[in-house]
């Protein structure tokens, strides 16, 4: 359709940001698991594509085959990629896409007509997602793909009514491009959901929670503690749309009204769906603030001494199936709770001393490199945990249930269906010293989040605690010293089993 194509050569009304958002995470081009998994997706019944997957030939994922299939073809050396990329051929696909990500839409569109191979690469939908978000922000109407969304916006909405004619291209092989499509379209496998080893508790007293859960710093799933929440009873789409009309929420790097986000969520099928994660929901929509309650176990909230200067601490979270949060440790050494209003979430958690497979934090903790998407982590790294001595804590959390995430624990969350949840990070006296130590680290300005004043947060918080709770910090420090001394004096197994003074023996390492 000439009109749609030529519309790409015209700039959109909103100017693009000068700095393109960098891609998070990594995907190894030569990961040995990729070809095996891709071949399995084609022939192994344990890999299922989502039932709503479109088989439209316009889907660029259907134009690409996994590299392993090249060796089974009649002409194993005839990869369209090699013949059609010209001087760009030596670049691995991930680097090639990074280079194309520097181009404006008109250059990307022009490049796509240079060869069949460049058409495949330049049509990679995440490239167009970045263009849409940079140029339109949240003011877009999702048209089934990001490329179609850009074309529709550039042509005044007419291009979406008459889709451009599909090109039938065969013989392009790429693990990197195929896996991106596969991660967007594959269902969660049964074995990824079957393991549920979190401790589930109901009817705990606050004292029991502190002694049995918070003090030992271990995850737990709490049942029944939000049964009477107003939000649990009425927070559905219709209610939220009614009370939030005209208000915008934070969705990834942009803001948009809830009705537009729901239209996007209903039609999207991509590797990393945009996630509504808003810290100001109570200020934007006072009715949501009035419905918000804190479960009885988490009401000691020491960051509240900072008043309006406290870091961001509570969020409403809404997302479609497949959306979620990749592995991270919660900010500022806080603990957290996450309550599901509607939907279901799969959780995977590792203790602070165990870095999840495929995740690579920097030495100072300021940056974390991880797989591009959550589904990619499950495909390529989840199986590695089966042989680990310290296996992850896992569960599926459903409507009306609350997960407690101890401070320092790595965790990943993926929505198994459209979900609405509330989460809050908090400081109690059980983790107060950890938070204070975290805030005074030499690189705190890089590590602290949720506040504009990262440099002075330690001094402000410590001073406010001393004013509101005189002597608390010193008492906690003394208790910590006593516990450390007691642990040091405690006899080891060999010391208690063998008395060296009475002719026994003792190993020394």
Notes on the protein architecture:
The protein has 509 residues and is α+β, with helices and mostly antiparallel strands. It has two domains: 2-17 and 29-186, no CATH class; 191-428, Sandwich (Jelly Rolls), CATH 2.60.120. Helices cover 35% and strands 15% of the residues. It has 22 helices and 17 strands. The protein has helices spanning 2-7, 32-43, 80-84, 93-100, 105-111, 116-122, 125-136, 146-154, 175-185, 190-194, 206-214, 230-234, 237-243, 258-267, 281-284, 286-291, 374-380, 432-439, 444-447, 457-468, 472-489, 493-497; strands at 64-65, 172-173, 200-202, 220-223, 248-251, 254-257, 276-278, 314-319, 324-329, 335-342, 344-350, 360-361, 368-369, 393-398, 401-405, 410-415, 419-426. It has a seven-stranded mixed β-sheet with strand order 3-4-15-10-17-8-7. Strands 9-16-11-14 form a four-stranded antiparallel β-sheet, with no helix packed on it. Helix 2 (32-43) packs across helix 9 (175-185) and helix 7 (125-136) packs across helix 8 (146-154). The longest helix has 18 residues, at 472-489. The model is unreliable at 1-7, 13-25, 30-46, 52-58 and 496-509 (pLDDT under 50). Belongs to the JARID1 histone demethylase family. Residues 12-39 are annotated as: Disordered. Residues 283-443 form the JmjC domain.
């Amino acid at each position: 359709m000439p009109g749609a194509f030529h519309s790409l050569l015209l700039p959109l009304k909103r100017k693009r940001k000068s700095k393109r958002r960098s891609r998070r995470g990594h995907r190894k081009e030569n990961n040995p698991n990729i070809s095996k998994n891709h071949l399995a997706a084609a022939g192994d019944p344990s890999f299922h594509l989502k039932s709503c997957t479109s088989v439209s030939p316009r889907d660029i994922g259907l134009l690409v085959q996994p590299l392993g299939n090249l060796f089974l073809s009649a002409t194993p050396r005839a990869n369209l990629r090699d013949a059609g990329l010209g001087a760009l051929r030596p670049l691995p696909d991930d680097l090639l896409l990074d280079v194309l990500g520097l181009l404006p839409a008109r250059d990307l569109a022009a490049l796509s007509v240079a060869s069949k191979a460049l058409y495949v690469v330049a049509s990679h939908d995440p490239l167009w997602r970045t263009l849409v978000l940079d140029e339109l922000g949240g003011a877009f109407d999702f048209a089934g793909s990001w490329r179609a969304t850009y074309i529709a916006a550039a042509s005044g909405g007419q291009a979406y009514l008459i889709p451009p004619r599909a090109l039938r291209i065969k013989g392009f092989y790429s693990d990197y491009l195929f896996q991106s499509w596969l991660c967007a379209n594959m269902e969660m496998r049964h074995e990824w959901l079957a393991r549920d080893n979190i401790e589930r508790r109901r009817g705990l007293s606050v004292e029991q929670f502190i002694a049995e859960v918070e003090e030992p710093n271990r995850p737990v799933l709490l049942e029944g503690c939000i049964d009477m929440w107003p939000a649990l009873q009425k927070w559905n789409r219709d209610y939220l749309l009614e009370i939030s009309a005209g208000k915008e929420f934070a969705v990834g790097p942009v803001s948009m009204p809830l009705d537009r986000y729901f239209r996007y969520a209903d039609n999207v099928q991509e590797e990393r769906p945009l996630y509504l994660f808003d810290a100001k929901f109570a200020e934007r929509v006072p009715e949501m603030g009035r419905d918000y309650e804190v479960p009885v176990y988490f009401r000691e909230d020491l960051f509240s001494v900072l008043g309006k200067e406290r870091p961001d601490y509570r969020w409403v979270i809404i997302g479609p199936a497949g959306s979620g949060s990749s592995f991270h440790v919660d900010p500022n050494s806080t603990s957290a709770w996450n309550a599901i209003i509607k939907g279901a979430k799969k959780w995977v958690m590792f203790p602070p001393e165990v870095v999840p497979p495929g995740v690579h934090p920097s030495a100072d903790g300021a940056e974390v490199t991880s797989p591009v998407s959550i589904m990619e982590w499950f495909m390529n790294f989840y199986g590695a945990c089966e042989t680990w001595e310290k296996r992850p804590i896992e569960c599926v959390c459903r409507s009306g249930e609350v997960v407690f995430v101890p401070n320092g624990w790595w965790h990943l969350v993926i929505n198994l269906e459209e979900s609405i949840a509330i989460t809050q990070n908090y400081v109690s006296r059980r983790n107060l010293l950890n938070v204070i130590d975290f805030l005074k680290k030499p690189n705190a300005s890089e590590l602290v989040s949720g506040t504009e004043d990262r440099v002075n947060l330690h001094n402000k918080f410590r001073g406010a605690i001393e004013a509101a709770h005189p002597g608390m910090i010193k008492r906690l420090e003394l208790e910590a010293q006593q516990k450390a001394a007691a642990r040091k004096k405690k006899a080891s197994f060999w010391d208690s089993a063998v008395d060296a003074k009475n002719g026994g023996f003792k190993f020394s390492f």
